[in-house]
Design a protein that fits this description.
The chain is of the alpha/beta class. It has helices spanning 5-8, 12-33, 35-43, 65-70, 104-120, 140-150, 163-173, 182-194, 216-226, 340-347, 378-390, 401-417, and strands at residues 84-90, 98-103, 128-131, 154-156, 177-180, 206-210, 229-236, 241-247, 255-257, 262-267, 281-287, 298-304, 306-307, 319-320, 325-326, 331-333, 336-338, 353-364, 367-376, 423-427, 442-444. A hairpin with a 4-residue loop joins strand 7 and strand 8 (241-247). The protein binds 5'-O-[hydroxy(phenylacetyl)phosphoryl]adenosine (DLL).
């Protein structure tokens, strides 16, 4: 369902006009209200009065995550704390978190873009929406909550974790829409198997999965396991939280960006040059209507590409391809750029492994080595364990003929598709740590 036809299906010319006007206003606002931006614009030789429309965008300076850190906690706020009604924060891997603030208008806009996203995956006021993103400083829980409530759906604010209770509520409350990370949905499936719960009999219809990179192969796996539609939702706290963009259930072909509020561009991450539509690069977003924390050309670090072609669902807003990873999560293995999600796609080509894996990067001398640890399927595990028990000459798990063959097949696929040699370590089903929030799949021993 299209919630806001006026904005989601606007003619591109009319939209550009609206975006341009809003851009000019945002630049004026940050210049007036945020000393950081006043200095930045001045240093870049920008006269805010000369910013009139979209054509002026490339002349504007970028905002980076380090700027938010340096101005911790409230230095980039453009509204006085008196007008700020909510504060979220994203946990940095090091040091202080990044703080983000919302005025009441920001909260209303966020609820609205989340309502558009949830409506796009088919949610209505007849649905029961289980929100299993974390509630708290993380934006996932409250973001999905407000959007679902605005649609009039019945919201279950269970938050993350509580694995068995999540499944109990699926059965008892008849949840129809699930919001959580894709890795948590896979974990829930494991637990459902242990409990002998026939998940295909549940009324669950669609999942709204995001907050971490996942692959098309993982989507197919989740859809097949649960017999649901799995849609991708994207966002980041600095910009608003979830709801920057989301797939429609009809096409599942790129995430519709709410580009009347969030102006997207793609740049070359090395040169910072703007790239033409369709080219892969780093997503940069300018907020067009935010009050408490307006950001100009914010470098998200996320790698994707954009299209403005009309979608089969009828929406005309920009669409972004599924995020393949963050530029800072990209591994460089012997000179080859590798995203964990690429390895995931290759692994899931094999029916004998499960979507639970870890990538261990190490350096021996000057050589980077990547070990892919992946769980084998329950069926294969049983076959291998039975054989090991009955054969004297097969002494270890990895020497079993089927595993040796599977190992070479995975190594060949990784080499052919990604272009690197990897070691493969098979793990027993259930032995790789499960995630109840964002999955941590890379262990980089080179930095330790
Ligand atoms: O993860 C907001 C969110 C919550 C999005 C729930 C979707 C669902 P942060 O914690 O600030 O905010 O992390 C933002 O997560 O820059 C991406 O690198 C990554 N990310 C978010 N959604 C996706 C996705 C939330 N669908 C960072 N695919 C972003 C890939 C994603 N990566």
């Amino acid at each position: 369902m299209i919630r806001d036809r006026e904005h989601e299906c606007m003619g591109r010319g009319e939209l550009a006009q609206l975006q341009g006007e809003r851009l000019a206003q945002q630049v004026q606002k940050v210049h007036e209200r945020v000393p950081f931006y006043r200095n930045l614009l001045q240093e870049s030789g920008i006269d805010p009065d000369k910013i009139k429309g979209l054509a002026d965008l490339p002349s504007l300076p970028f905002t980076k995550k380090t700027n938010l850190r340096d101005e911790y906690p409230f230095g980039l706020f453009a509204a006085p704390l008196k007008e700020v009604v909510r504060i979220h924060a994203s946990s940095g891997t090091t040091g202080k978190p990044t703080t983000v603030g919302y005025t009441q208008n920001d909260i209303d806009m966020w609820a609205e873009v989340m309502a558009r996203s949830l409506a796009g995956v088919g949610t209505t006021d007849d649905d029961i929406v289980q929100v299993a993103y974390g509630y708290g400083l993380f934006t996932g829980g409250l973001g999905a909550h407000y959007g679902a409530e605005r649609l009039g759906a019945s919201v279950i604010p269970i938050s993350g974790s509580n694995t068995q209770r999540q499944l109990m509520l699926f059965e008892d409350f008849g949840t129809t829409v699930m919001c959580c990370t894709p890795s948590f949905m896979l974990y829930l499936w494991d637990v459902a198997q242990q409990l002998d719960l026939d998940v295909k009999k549940l009324p669950l219809r669609v999942g709204v999965f995001g907050a971490e990179p996942w692959s098309e192969a993982m989507r197919r796996d989740i859809e097949a396991k649960w017999d649901i539609k799995a849609c991708d939702i994207y966002g980041l706290s600095e910009i608003i939280g979830p709801g920057v963009s989301c797939e429609c259930v009809e096409a599942q072909s790129g995430l519709h960006i709410n580009d009347d509020h969030f102006l997207p561009e793609i740049i070359n991450p090395d040169t910072a040059e703007q790239l033409p539509e369709g080219e892969m690069g780093e997503l940069v977003i300018t907020t067009l209507t935010k009050e408490a924390l307006p950001l100009i050309r914010y470098r998200t670090g996320d790698i994707t590409r954009l299209t403005t072609d009309r979608c089969a669902c009828g929406r005309t807003n920009s669409r972004m391809a599924r995020v393949s990873g963050r530029s800072d999560d990209m591994l460089i293995i012997r000179g080859v750029n590798v995203f964990p999600s690429q390895v995931e796609s290759v692994l899931l080509m094999s029916p004998h492994v499960e979507p639970h894996y870890k990538l261990i990067v190490d350096r021996k001398g000057a050589m980077d080595n990547l070990e892919v640890q992946v769980e084998i399927s329950q069926d294969l595990y049983k076959e291998v364990s039975d054989a090991i028990l009955s054969l004297d000459d097969v002494t270890t798990f990895t020497e079993h003929e089927t595993l040796v063959r599977l190992c070479s097949q995975i190594q060949k696929n990784v080499k052919d598709i990604i272009g690197i040699n990897v070691r493969v370590g098979f793990k027993e089903p259930g032995s790789i740590e499960r995630s109840e929030g964002k999955a941590q799949r890379v262990v980089d021993l080179r930095q330790q």
